[in-house]
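Continuing from the previous page of notes. For each protein in this section, the sequence appears first, followed by its structure tokens. Read the first protein now.
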Amino acid sequence: MDYVIKIGGEAGQGIQTIGDTLAKVFARSGLHVFTDQDYESRVRGGHNFYRIRFSDSPVFCARESVDILIALDAESIKRYKKTLSLIGLVIYDSTQIKESFGSETFIDIPFAKLAHDAGGSKIMANTVAIGSVHGMLNMDLDIVNQIFRDTFSKKGDDVVNANLAAAKAGFDFASDACIQCSFGLPDRSEPLMLISATEAIAVGAIAAGCRFYTAYPMTPSTGIMNYLASKESSGSIIVEQSEDEIAAINMALGASYAGLRSMTGTSGGGFALMVEGLSLAGITEIPVVICLGQRPGPATGLPTRTEQGELLFSAFAGHGEFPRLIFAPRDPEQAFYLVCKAFDLSEKYQVPAIVLFDQYLSDSLWTFKGFDLSKTIFKDHRLRTEDLKSLDQYKRYAFTDTGVTPLAVPGASKNLVVVDSDEHSEEGHIIEDAETRRAMVNKRLHKKMPLIRHEISTPLLYGSSNPEIVLVGWGSTYDPLREVVDALVKKKKTALLHFQEILPLPADEHSAYLDIIRNARVSICVENNATSQFAFLLKAEKGVSFKYHINRFDGRPFTLEYILEEINALV
């Protein structure tokens, strides 16, 4: 069982409400869910869609064929009727779209009238649509009814009861009208967790001990701030909306200097403003985690679409030379764990860590059984009051064999913790001499980097261990590429080599993955950008080149069908 529901219409028609509600219902029924969205940067009008793929086995990416199309406007029918599967059906309200279709694949359901007749208002037409899908799937209404009770309880019993009645009206109408429905669902099983990458990043930050988050709202990172702000009342974290991104990174650095694990988040335009602060973190050796949500640029670009266009920006941004970490999670589960690792290594080596995600990861939802908290890392690498009592003196930048100086919390002892944005002595005071400058660069950069490289995990190999065709990707491309391997491996020895820990790349003694690329008959790097940025980085760092590239840079994510078509055209 593997079905796709697509809800299409204009902004303001409640598309996301229908999609989110159905996704919750399927997840709570124990079905595996993946959702994605495509929407324009406007409050009303335009054309948007919300797609839900659900199955009795795990699903990881979008599928282009549609089994149930909920068309809230005529444009949806025009765009997607050709994508209907062999059992695909369209439900629509002819009075709303001012058009009627006589084909057996179209079911005219008067959403607005049924909502009104059920005692509600036309605004509850979306609830009727939700009930109609239940009727087509022959699915009990008890879970969705509970969702309505939870959602509308503060609005009073009348609103709750009207929504329950509207859902039942849609269910009954679709059950009678959809005599050709052939959908079958398995028995219910244990509910699954439904989560996005931004929510997972936020939860991972809390698990890692983050106690201060500051940001200026910017899609697609705003979801992190929203989630963390909802946890402020528990006292576990302080969230501050800054006046701009310059203030955000400097506030995060200030809080980190004071002893709190701190994080900020933004998108490309905001990160451009943070760059001076990034260099400040580099020379002051103050740990900080930066979540960078990618979307198409330059400038405002396509503010609600997705892209992997800021890898090289994050790798080389900043004036001067200093180490940094870059992580690019493939899905919410890995985002949870990698954020924990980002906090740990950032504090352990006193370097900035960047978590790269994108609009696709932010807007999509996945189901999981849960996250394993035993895999999280939470070790305090700072010297606090008890650690500092025995020290007669403290030098913030004392030279060590590893380049890592013990990190003290100011105010925790009689010792001063002096930091400076100018080049400085071991005590933290400004210097001008060449000898100290050379020693400090070696401390910050050359001594730390080999140690950091040994902390970096090798890329994940999925599929054949000796592939003829090897696909290489990073970040959010993992799920569609994995399904591509599953589709190809029956005919050709195919594998996916996928990177989630991007910078620095693993130490040379852990570079066997490079031989997989070199020895494959066909190597293809797949990226959501126009210039193959990761391929550039891999060639610059390791001297590895690719025979072929698949690039998508129209603001849309990869799908299984898209990649397969591109591979067939290349090979």
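Done with the first. The second protein uses the same format. Note its length before scrolling.
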Amino acid sequence: MSLKKIDPTKTKSWDNLNSHYKTIKSSSISDFFKENPFRSDDFKIEWEDFYVDFSKNIINSKTIKLLIELCKEVDLKNSIDKYFGGVKINSTENRSVLHTALRSKEKIFLENIDISKNVKEVKSKLKKFSNKIISGKFKSSSEKKITDIVNIGIGGSDLGPIMVTHALKHYSNHLKIHFISNVDGDHVVETLKKIDPETTLFIIVSKTFTTQETITNANSVKKWFLSKYPNGDVSKHFIAVSSSIEKAKKFGISENYIFPMEDWVGGRFSIWGSVGLSIMLSIGPDNFEEILEGAYEMDQHFKDKPFEENIPVILALISIWYNNFFNAETEVVIPYSEYLKLLPSYLQQAVMESNGKNYDRNGNPVSYETGNIIWGSTGTNSQHAFFQLLHQGTKFIPSDFIGFIEPLNNKNDHHEKLMSNFFAQTEALMNGKTEDEVLKELNELKYSEDNIKRVLPFKIFQGNKPSNSILINKLTPKSLGKLICLYEHKIFVQGVIWNIFSFDQWGVELGKKLANNILNEIQSDIIFTHDESTKNLIKKFKKNS
């Protein structure tokens, strides 16, 4: 019942794509536009408040046709049905992958049990609790209103909540939201400087309540809290999002304030449920519901639309086209909104933890590239940083540009200047600047012949750099839910085609286990067998710490 195990490179469509690549790899995107005046209409998807333009890519209609044939040959539709249907597609951990159930409006059955009822109950509990905090009805130990929230978690328990709360800052209420993730004590100390323990609520987010970084930080925060506020009641200032009720209670948390994490929700896809409590506290339950609504609408789009009109499918296929045929190792995500500055970091975990796999679903080493290195920053800041490499470097780097038609704050020339840069950069990446254009420009500037010879090659831009443009009407909770969900489904499609398991993360475990062993060595007089480099590093640290 798990996902089919089809090596994509053994399919007929992969062979056809290889042949097609040889004929198209040197094609000019600009020439495609000259050949087809309707290209921008042919290579776009308009859906609700989203306008996705993928015309500035080294593709033609045959490319899309062959990529969709690949989807059919690996039976993507069947995989999508299993994904939403609760089948245990996370086979290595024997789990279903049902974060979509946290935003669904339908009944969802898992092993003949309707889990939608439980989802509604948890959501109701989160909503009631959030309203009590936001309204001030929930009081601290000294009967004061809560002013600050500190989310203590790491990985999916941090990157999603911090990204969304920052992205929706415009919609935030009076509560100040803080995040502690890194086990680096400096992170803890600097955060605690900003808060008053008497009016602060701490959320410990850990499924097992054993995550080293999170529990170390939680214990340090608890110790600080009791030292600064000896009369404080831990049960009125600490709550938990966890599956381990007993461990949370032992910490001092009231069972009434332990919110569950389900086994069928992976950490990096968990913002839609209890892990999103800090988001709900920041923007209120109604806005949080809008995030879920947007994600649900994207779920329906992904499930129902034919592949050629399906935004996550098309973007996933373009990504595979570049990764597996053009040997592009990285993709850059550039949001033209300061509110979305943490989106690239969030997507790094979502994409690279999911699809950074070197064994296929048959348990065999893969013979082809999987995963993408994701990076990025906001425009226009990034234009003054790494765009030099995009325009004139030797790397082939496809890009996603994300922008909004309507600004959230007062409409002025700031937003027009921002978006003019968005559009100009995608055009410049595609068209570049030819030698003739540079010569004309230098002659108009009255450069001498010697100076022209000297600077000419440095002012030429090769162009033909591909990009997707995702243009959204406005950054709202609902549109953000759609955007996050779009990338979730893109990840899923890539994993299906690459024949890998996208929903486990065994690669996270090895370093953590070794770190625990080394910690024991640092805290004792024994150093076990290591390579000489690691052994000397441990000795140097112990000697001088």
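What the second structure shows: The chain has 21 helices and 13 strands. The chain has a mean pLDDT of 96. We return to this in next week's lecture.
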